[in-house]
């Protein structure tokens, strides 16, 4: 093992030497560094542009709003600081001593409209060496129509190219042919294993506590790993450093409240955001057999020890609890939730090296019990992670942006499930999590990455990541190469290409086809090998009307190995060795994505279209033949738009269309006497897997919001907002699932479609002090 590690580390050491050499040989020049922040709240502005006016070279701020920029050998240099929705700041710097400073940008609400229109049209999508990366505007998340008045990050993600939605009304998403467990969802670096409420109708993330949302689906830089398909990186706000602020809202099923403010002005701040449902009270009015409640809480504090040191502590907890009891029907009880905590320390080494060191705790659990007729199932799955990581960013000059670091994760998993007939005396077996055989494993990774600007026209982002895994008798070490290149045809056009290799050591194995989240998390072992993917992509990026409109076309091809499913006909007992009832296969996905986005003016929004195909192949399933993946959609079209009708009124709409989801239709049936009550005395004969499709899915949502600044009791200023919306305006009966029943007259089987959500009106009230 040590020899294998040494062989894998050799290329990493060579690359570290190569990319760090510019730091070692770089002559002393003037360097400016610091933070770019919102002038009104002192909140960090992530991804703000810091550009030298003459050369048009520079770098964006990182996830903490930090920048460092080396100026050319000149008497005077002009630097422009800008960010979408803010007035730019222009500063002149004189050669000589290096400078550390904070730059504050004014929000557009406080500046003239003509300044906003002419100042913020950057071309980052053309000039940056990145592809398959989308920064999701917080404003769009807040303005687009939502189900039941709940603003939802994951619903907005489903409107992007290359992203397929899950079942009707759910927040589950699939990226470029990958399964849902192949998406790494992080809140302040902590993993959120189940990011949904109300069986997936909307996500656990309270948008009022969120600073930024970034989706990475290809061309992964080396600092990201552990999943095959995507990284959804969510950063919480730090809290207003200037004054106390309260905002919240009331919808049809829940209420939320966010408080933030300074602890020590200009040095420390806090934010706490909570949401609680009252849907259970309405459900009891309809049926006393049903109960449901959920809540989520985000909290964060930060303290600036000095210009070189900054501490952050953020925590998150979300939980759902539901039950349904009825005679001769499906009965269930379910409890699931996430708890995370992140402690981070930022430190500056001189003016050119930024470091972030984090200690992270994740705890996820799902406990589910169901029964129907003579059968019952009990399931428990849990994941606990303890993570330590440190990351470094070195920017020796405007041509290099170097990142390197390491991370260690200690996994503890609690997998267990039982499915059986209900005993005659009704003595069902319950699962005690403490009695389960726990699975322990260690995961570590080392990486180095350089974003290298070779010339004005050509740049390359390259690096490697070396992950290690040890657990359940399995030991694995891999080298994952990463490279993305950019070639600019002109100031508004560029061509990009990328190659990425990824490995995944944790797997979510579906235990049933039910809509309940009845899946089990497992880690790799001697038997369960890590999932692996190789992805290549190429794209053309073009902007129009002085960067007012962004467009792109991306083509990708991805192969996946060691995909996991339970073997057909598996019945899980308490003492079942789960490794022995899993089958392994491979997957393939390819497609083309079109994207157009309008960023400025009264009308903003985007259009996306994806043409793709995703298949899977398992030796033990479907006679070893390839079949469409359950999340395969040939066509996927999304339109999203917002229009500022007046100063106070904004109209928004979104439309989605996708090819129907694949499902398996039986080829015939066999009459069974005396043992077929669950199946109407018939057993169905299944041949090809996913041999049919549900009808196409399409839906239109609309909303109108009215914002107005008012005064409470004529003295206290605040901002209020009414939002009125309709989900599924034309009440399309979209398929949720299809089941077979026997026609009592003809005795012939017939398929029956179940639809979940007709037209759903909503109204919500939001306020901000």
Question: Could you characterize what this model shows?
Answer:
By secondary structure, the protein is mostly beta strands. The protein folds into two domains: about 100 residues, Carboxypeptidase-like, regulatory domain (Immunoglobulin-like, Sandwich), CATH 2.60.40; about 600 residues, Maltoporin, Chain A (Beta Barrel), CATH 2.40.170. It has six helices and 48 strands. The strands form ten sheets. The protein has a 22-stranded antiparallel barrel. A hairpin with a 3-residue loop joins β44 and β45. The longest helix is centred in the N-terminal third of the chain and has 24 residues. The N and C termini lie far apart (about 60 Å). The N terminus is likely disordered.
Please give the domain count: 2
Mean pLDDT across every amino acid position: 82
- Rg (CA only): 27 Å
In what range is the share of β-strand residues?
Answer: over 45%
CATH third-tier fold name of the largest domain: Maltoporin, Chain A
Number of helices: 6
CATH architecture of the largest domain: Beta Barrel
The coarse silhouette is globular
Helix content: under 10%
Catalogue the unreliable spans: 1-6, 22-27, 110-120, 512-517
Largest sheet geometry: 22 strands, antiparallel, barrel
Strand segment tally: 48
- Name given to the CATH homologous superfamily of the largest domain: TonB-dependent receptor, beta-barrel domain
Give me the secondary-structure category: mainly beta
Distance between the termini: 59 Å
């Amino acid at each position: 093992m040590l020899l294998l590690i040494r062989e894998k580390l050799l290329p990493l050491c060579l690359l570290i030497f190569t990319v760090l050499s510019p730091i070692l040989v770089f002559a002393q020049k003037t360097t400016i560094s610091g933070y770019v922040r919102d002038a009104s709240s002192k909140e960090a502005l992530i991804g703000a542009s810091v550009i030298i006016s003459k050369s048009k070279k520079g770098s964006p701020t990182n996830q903490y709003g930090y920048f460092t920029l080396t100026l050319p050998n000149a008497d005077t240099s002009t630097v422009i600081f800008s960010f979408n929705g803010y007035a730019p700041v222009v500063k002149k710097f004189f050669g000589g001593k290096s400078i550390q400073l904070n730059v504050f940008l004014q929000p557009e609400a406080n500046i003239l409209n003509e300044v906003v229109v002419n100042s913020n049209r950057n071309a980052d999508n053309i000039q940056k060496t990145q592809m398959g990366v989308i920064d999701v505007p917080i404003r769009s998340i807040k303005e687009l129509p939502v189900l039941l008045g709940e603003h939802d990050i994951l619903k907005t993600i489903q409107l992007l190219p290359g992203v397929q939605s899950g079942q009707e009304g759910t927040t589950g998403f699939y990226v470029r042919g990958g399964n849902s467990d192949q998406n790494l969802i992080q809140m302040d670096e902590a993993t959120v294993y189940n990011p949904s409420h109300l069986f997936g109708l909307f996500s656990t993330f309270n948008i009022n506590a969120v600073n930024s949302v970034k989706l990475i689906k290809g061309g992964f830089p080396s600092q990201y790993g552990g999943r095959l398909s995507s990284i959804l990186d969510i950063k919480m706000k730090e809290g207003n450093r200037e004054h106390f602020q309260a905002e919240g809202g009331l919808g049809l099923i829940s209420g939320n409240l966010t408080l933030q403010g300074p602890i020590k002005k200009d040095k420390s701040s806090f934010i706490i955001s909570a949401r609680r449902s009252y849907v259970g009270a309405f459900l009891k009015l309809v049926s006393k057999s049903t109960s449901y409640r959920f809540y989520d809480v985000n909290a964060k504090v930060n303290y600036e020890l000095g210009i070189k040191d900054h501490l952050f502590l953020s925590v998150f907890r979300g939980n759902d609890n539901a039950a349904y009891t009825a005679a001769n029907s499906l009965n269930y009880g379910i409890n699931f939730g996430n708890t995370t905590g992140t402690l981070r320390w930022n430190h500056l080494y001189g003016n050119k090296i930024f470091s972030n060191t984090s200690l992270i705790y994740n705890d996820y659990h799902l406990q589910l019990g169901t029964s129907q007729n003579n059968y019952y199932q009990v399931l428990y799955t849990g994941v606990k992670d303890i993570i330590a990581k440190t990351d470094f960013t070195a920017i020796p000059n405007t041509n290099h942006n170097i990142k390197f670091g390491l991370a260690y994760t200690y996994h503890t998993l609690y997998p267990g499930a039982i499915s059986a007939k209900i005993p005659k005396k009704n003595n069902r077996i319950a699962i005690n999590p403490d009695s389960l055989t726990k699975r322990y494993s260690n995961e570590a990774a080392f990486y180095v990455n350089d974003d290298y600007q070779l010339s004005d026209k050509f740049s390359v982002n390259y690096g490697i990541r070396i992950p290690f895994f040890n657990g359940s008798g399995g030991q694995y070490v891999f080298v994952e190469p990463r490279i993305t290149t950019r070639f600019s045809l002109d100031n508004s056009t560029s061509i990009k290409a990328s190659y990425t290799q990824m490995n995944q050591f944790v797997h979510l194995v579906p235990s049933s086809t039910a809509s309940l989240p009845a899946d089990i998390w497992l880690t790799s072992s001697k038997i369960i090998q890590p999932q692996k993917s190789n992805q290549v992509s190429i794209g053309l990026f073009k902007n129009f009307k002085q960067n007012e409109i962004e467009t792109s076309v991306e083509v990708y091809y991805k192969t996946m190995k060691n995909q996991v499913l339970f073997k057909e006909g598996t019945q899980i007992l308490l003492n079942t060795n789960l490794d022995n009832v899993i089958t392994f296969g491979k997957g393939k996905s390819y497609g083309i994505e079109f994207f157009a986005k309008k960023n400025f003016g009264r009308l903003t929004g985007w259009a996306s279209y994806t043409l793709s195909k995703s298949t899977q192949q398992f030796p033990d399933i479907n006679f070893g033949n390839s079949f469409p993946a359950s999340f395969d959609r040939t066509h996927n079209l999304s339109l999203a738009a917002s229009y500022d009708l007046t100063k106070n009124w904004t109209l928004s709409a979104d439309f989605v269309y996708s090819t129907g989801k694949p499902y398996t239709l039986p080829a015939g049936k066999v009459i069974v006497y005396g043992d077929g009550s669950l199946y109407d005395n018939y057993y169905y004969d299944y041949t090809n897997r996913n041999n049919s499709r549900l009808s196409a899915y399409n839906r239109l949502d609309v909303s109108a919001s009215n914002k107005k600044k008012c005064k409470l009791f004529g003295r206290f200023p605040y901002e209020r907002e009414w939002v009125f919306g309709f989900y599924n305006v034309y009440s399309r009966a979209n398929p949720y699932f299809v089941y077979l029943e026997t026609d009592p007259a003809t005795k012939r089987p017939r398929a029956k479609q179940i639809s979940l959500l007709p037209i759903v009106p909503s109204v919500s009230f939001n306020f901000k002090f």
